[in-house]
Amino acid sequence: MAATHGKKAVVQLDNGAGSLTDITSYLSKSSLERMRETAETTVFGLENKTYVAGLKDATFSGEGNFDPALDAILDAALGTDSTKTLQFDPVGPGTGNIRYSVETLVTKYGFDPGSSDKVPCSFELQCTGVITRSVL
Length: 136
Description:
Blueprint: E1 10-14, E2 20-22, E3 27-40, E4 51-65, H1 68-78, E5 84-89, E6 98-111, E7 120-135
Antiparallel strand pairs: 1-2, 1-5, 3-4, 4-7, 5-6, 6-7
C-alpha cells in the first residue's frame, strides 16, 4: 500500500444512546497505542536477561477543537461505567484499508482555553478486551 495522508483518518465513538457517532470533524490528532507486557525470567548464571510475553494493552487518544456536540459524548462517557465502542480507520475507509474496533472506557477528558486562541480539547480512552483488526 502506498503512503497516505493522515487527514483521511476516521474516528467513531458511541454516543450517549450507544450509537457509533463520527467525531472525526472535531479532531486534529489521534493515536492508537498498543503494548505488550513482558515478565522477566532471568536466572542465575545468565549474562543476558530473558523474558516471556505477557498481556496486551492499548490506549487511544485524541486532540482537537472543543465543540458542544463532542463535549456531550465525552462528558457522558466519562460519567458512566459502561464501555463505549471505538472504531478507528487510521487511513480512512475504503477497500483494502484497515479498521480497528474495540470497547473502551474514557479515562481522561479536558479542555484548555487560552485568551488568544481556539479552545482545544483532548481525551484518552483505555481499551478493554480484544482489539478487532479488519480489512475493509
